[in-house]
Amino acid sequence: SQTIHQWPATLVQPVGSPLSLECTVEGTSNPNLYWYRQAAGRGLQLLFYSVGIGQISSEVPQNLSASRPQDRQFILSSKKLLLSDSGFYLCAWSQVNYGYTFGSGTRLTVV
Amino acid sequence: GENVEQHPSTLSVQEGDSAVIKCTYSDSASNYFPWYKQELGKRPQLIIDIRSNVGEKKDQRIAVTLNKTAKHFSLHITETQPEDSAVYFCAAPKYNFNKFYFGSGTKLNVKP
């Protein structure tokens, strides 16, 4: 069966510090991968998605970037965090024409 | 891009009553519509989905209906229980790729 791992679960970072969140999927090959952000009490904002290694599409211009160095690994990064980067970050995977399976999320607080 | 509107934003019902959440979408080529439940502090989880070749799908106390002509779909929860309290999101795909746009969410509160 397929599983998705996301870490860390919580993170408190100072403004201006770098960020790296990692997500890996097991039990499937060539998944579509996604990063979403959810502000407190709000909806799900698509940040990046990827259909294959090295293929990244950005939905919203911002202070973040994403990379897919391996088929089942998706990384979200920032060189310098802003206060507005705080939120609940969710990685997800899917096969084409099926719904998402979300990771457990990372709650990021920028202070 | 795809525009998904979801109503109501909050819904409070008495235990045992039914709850209905509605979503509309704009891309007539959309063909798959999932619903997610998100409990406080947790990840959204897929609870039911429907494809465009059917009009209704049921799974125990939950059901989803789809009206392709009107471009709307609804989640129905019958005999609600306190554990149904959560935020529910609908989603619709971008046609040529498996990328979903989500509704803004409905916070359901089931009062015991």
Structure overview:
The complex is a heterodimer of chains A (111) and B (112). Chain A has no helices and 11 strands. Chain A has strands at 3-7, 10-13, 19-26, 32-38, 45-52, 55-58, 65-70, 73-78, 87-94, 101-102, 106-110. In chain A, strands 2, 4, 5, 6, 9, 10 and 11 form a 7-stranded mixed beta sheet that branches. A 4-stranded antiparallel beta sheet of chain A has the order 1-3-8-7, with no helix packed on it. The radius of gyration of chain A is 13 Å and the shape is globular. The model of chain A has no long low-confidence stretch (mean pLDDT 92). With 112 residues, chain B is an all-beta fold. Chain B is 0% helix and 54% strand. Chain B has no helices and 11 strands. Chain B has strands at residues 5-7, 10-14, 19-24, 32-38, 45-51, 56-59, 62-67, 72-77, 86-93, 100-102, 106-111. In chain B, strand 4 and strand 5 (45-51) form a beta hairpin. The mean pLDDT of chain B is 92. Chain A binds chain B through residues 32, 34, 42-44, 46, 49, 51, 90, 94-105, and chain B through 31-32, 34, 36, 42-46, 49, 89, 91, 93, 97-105.
SSE arrangement:
The complex is a heterodimer of chains A (about 110) and B (about 110).
Chain A: E1 3-7, E2 10-13, E3 19-26, E4 32-38, E5 45-52, E6 55-58, E7 65-70, E8 73-78, E9 87-94, E10 101-102, E11 106-110
Parallel strand pairs in A: 2-11
Antiparallel strand pairs in A: 1-3, 3-8, 4-5, 4-9, 5-6, 7-8, 9-10, 9-11
Chain B: E1 5-7, E2 10-14, E3 19-24, E4 32-38, E5 45-51, E6 56-59, E7 62-67, E8 72-77, E9 86-93, E10 100-102, E11 106-111
Parallel strand pairs in B: 2-11
Antiparallel strand pairs in B: 1-3, 3-8, 4-5, 4-9, 6-7, 7-8, 9-10, 9-11
What's the short story on this structure?
The complex is a heterodimer of chains A (111) and B (112). Chain A is mainly beta and 111 residues long. In chain A, 0% of the residues lie in helices and 57% in strands.
Tell me about the biggest sheet of chain A? 7 strands, mixed
Structural class of chain B: mainly beta
State the helical fraction of chain A: under 10%
Give the mean pLDDT of chain A.
92
Head-to-tail CA distance between termini of chain B: 40 Å
| End-to-end separation of chain A | 38 Å
List the total number of helices of chain A: 0
